[in-house]
Amino acid sequence: MFGTIDRLPCLGTLLSDRTFEIFNPSTGELLAKLPDMGIEETRAAISKAHIAQPLWAALTARERSDILWRWHQLIVDHADDLAAILTAEMGKPLNEAKSEVSHAGAYLQWYAEEANRIYGETISAPSADRRMLVIKQPIGVVGTITPWNFPASMVARKISPALAAGCTIVLKPAEQTPLVAGAMFALAHQAGFPEGVVNLIYASDGDAVGRELCSNPKVRKISFTGSTEVGRLLMRQCSDQIKKLSLELGGNAPFIVFDDADIEAAVHGAIQAKFRNAGQTCVSANRFYVQAGVHDRFVEEFVEKVRQLSVGDGFDPAVAIGPLIDSHALAKIESHIDDAVAKGGSVRCGGNRIGKDGTFFQPTVLADISSEMAVAREETFGPLAPIIRFEDADQIVHEANDTIYGLAAYFYASNLKRVWLVAEALEYGMVGINTGRMSSEAAPFGGIKQSGIGREGSRHGLEDYLEMKYLCMGGI
């Protein structure tokens, strides 16, 4: 559908003789064959980035900004094509794919602007013959690894601040969804990035590429989005060189509905927070806590809305939920349902695969859930919403915090005192209050505890790609 390796962009890479195949998860259709790169190709891309980095950093902030602006405009101009590629390789509904491409463009626009806002500072010296200053410089070559669930926006969110800061990039997209990254890099080439500044690695073996990125001393920083298990591995691999990392890892987001909440708004927010991208988002609501006074009404209205969600091929305009990414995702959601039912949980709607082939699953609501069930402790990453009834408003915050993860949390309440107290008490890097969606290029995205290190987006995201240097000038 999208061609073979001779027509696909591989900026800054060598072409391997090995290939791997990309399939549409909705139909099983073969989409493309790509060069299967490994350590040799990754090392070559790193060397190109290393050579290009001083020249890229030497450009003025305005010159780097102008190229990022051109890339942003090309993304906007080709948004429909990029969305179609994304839907074909990942499966999400086309409208969601268009929204994601728009989000990717927004990050490029934001950091095109932020490139001009890298400021130093002056410090009052202790003596008249000295001057003390702080300047900020790009960290150097950055190795980035992006996930399959948001294959366009994660590319832009990771590399646009690095490029704005004056860093060069070696990017390895997820092996399931590399095509939209390739298309975006082709547009980057058209935008005018100098040779070696942006480098793309196609690979079916992420371990080999990751090891080279972590061990190669020319790479000064790693930025990764994915599972906490892989994040731990990358930290170990980077430890010998004390290499800087930005990690956006797993989550186990609570969604709390207090008895003073606007229930209609809470149901709407729950649909957004749970079923966007078939529940395959790191900030997806994973545990629903609903206070006893509104529990039955919430469950009834929520189930009614969930039953209206259509599942199918993402190119069908009537479809709200696409396929899961692979058979392993299907097996995990089924194991969580089986465990919950065996321990007293009840299926209020859904609960089954759709069809014998493919990876479609019914959007599912479970009730009568308790904390010892796997679905209350583990991230499902699928269209499964387990609901837990609670009585004590103070105790539920403690229960919501009782996890190694701390990426995102949501709650609905009207009482202003409760809003402030709960927002401050939740141990999460991001908290959605009376909303089910909170991502924005202008806001810092990231978690605490074992959900990650660092922030992406906002002005803070730029700082992760800059080194601070103190200058002390004597003899003035």
Looking at the structure, the CATH topology of the largest domain is Aldehyde Dehydrogenase, Chain A, domain 1
Proportion of strand residues: 15-25%
Category by helix and strand content = alpha/beta
Helix content: 40-55%
- Tell me the total number of β-strands: 22
What would you report as the Rg, rounded to the nearest angstrom? Answer: 23 Å
Which consecutive residue ranges, at least 5 long each, have pLDDT under 50?
1-14
Whole-number average pLDDT? 95
The CATH superfamily title of the largest domain: Aldehyde Dehydrogenase, Chain A, domain 1
The CA-CA distance between the termini, in Å, is: 67 Å
Q: State the domain count.
A: 2
Major β-sheet profile: 7 strands, mixed
Number of helices: 15
Written description of the protein model:
By secondary structure, this protein is α/β, with parallel strands linked by helices. It has two domains: 5-249 and 451-473, Aldehyde Dehydrogenase, Chain A, domain 1 (3-Layer(aba) Sandwich), CATH 3.40.605; 253-440, Aldehyde Dehydrogenase, Chain A, domain 2. The protein is 40% helix and 21% strand. The protein contains 15 helices and 22 strands. The chain has helices at residues 39-58, 61-77, 79-90, 94-114, 153-165, 179-191, 206-215, 228-239, 263-275, 292-307, 327-342, 374-377, 393-401, 416-425, 458-463; strands spanning 19-23, 30-35, 121-123, 131-138, 141-145, 168-172, 198-200, 219-225, 244-248, 253-257, 285-291, 346-349, 353-354, 360-361, 364-367, 384-390, 405-406, 408-412, 430-433, 448-449, 452-453, 466-473. A seven-stranded mixed beta sheet has the order 12-15-16-11-10-18-19, with helices on both faces. The chain has a six-stranded mixed beta sheet with strand order 7-6-5-8-9-21, sandwiched between helices. Strands 3-4-22 form a three-stranded antiparallel beta sheet, with no helix packed on it. Helix 5 links the parallel strand 5 and strand 6. Helix 3 crosses helix 4 and helix 3 packs antiparallel against helix 6. The longest helix is centred in the N-terminal third of the chain and has 21 residues, at 94-114. The radius of gyration is 23 Å and the shape is globular. The chain starts with 18 loop residues before the first strand and ends with a strand. The model is unreliable at 1-14 (pLDDT under 50).
